[in-house]
Amino acid sequence: MGPIVYSNIVIEGMLAFAALHYFLLWWRLRRERVLLIFSIFAAIVSVVIAVTVSLIAADSIGGAQRALNLRTTFGILAYPLLLWLVSEIASVRPGRLGNGLRSCRTLSRRDLADRLRKERSGLKVLFMSGYTDDTLLRHGVYEAREAFLQKPFALQAFASKVRQILDQE
Predict the structure, then answer these.
(1) How far apart are CA 132 and CA 130, in angstroms?
(2) Which helix (H) or strand (E) holds 30?
(3) Is the preceding peptide bond at 152 cis, omega within 30 degrees of 0?
(4) Which range is least confidently modeled, 99-103, 104-108, 139-143?
(5) Which terminus in the chain has less CB density within 10 A, N or C?
(6) Nearest to 87 by CA among 25, 125, 33
(7) What is the pLDDT of residues 37-71, one digit of tens each?
């Protein structure tokens, strides 16, 4: 087995750990569905990678065919979950994701946030930019009621701001 197999095994282990970690976070809070969806997605991708490793290491045609069938089955399951995850993060119903994104290309960030808030009440929005505060004020993106994070920022500042926004009622 070469370096590709070993790197796949490492990635599989990391995804399996992420699946367990995010599932336990969801289990404790039981309110942020994104954690559960990401956990399921990570678990499925972990299985796909494990089956890929067994496909590479198969010693018979029958074993390779079984691994290929499993990889295809779990790979097909991953795509709807990925769409569900993206739609949940975007807070848009899955059936409306495609049309909603196409029509949002010409909107300002502020208008897009307002439009998505009409679709889903209680949507949390964090504006971030590399622009100066003066530019943001002129374009109507930043107001005192909006959560804002100026780039560049530390990972801890980002995590703290996201937690603050999620905890707001």
Answers:
(1) 7
(2) none
(3) yes
(4) 99-103
(5) C
(6) 33
(7) 888 888 988 888 888 888 888 888 988 898 888 88
User: How far is residue 45's CA from residue 51's CA, in Å, rounded to a whole number?
Assistant: 10
The identity of residue 128, as a single letter, is M
What's the angle, vertex CA 81, arms to CA 75 and CA 87, rounded to 5? Answer: 145
| Domain spans in the chain, listed from the N-terminal domain onward | 3-90, 124-167
Amino acid type, 161? K
**Which residues share a beta bridge with 147?**
126
- Which residue's entry shows tokens 């499993």? 70
For 105-129, what is each residue's pLDDT tens digit?
455 677 777 777 887 777 888 877 6
pLDDT at 55: 84
Q: How far is CA 16 from the centre of its chain?
A: 16
Interatomic CA distance for residues 48 and 17, integer angstroms:
15
Residue-level pLDDT at 69: 87
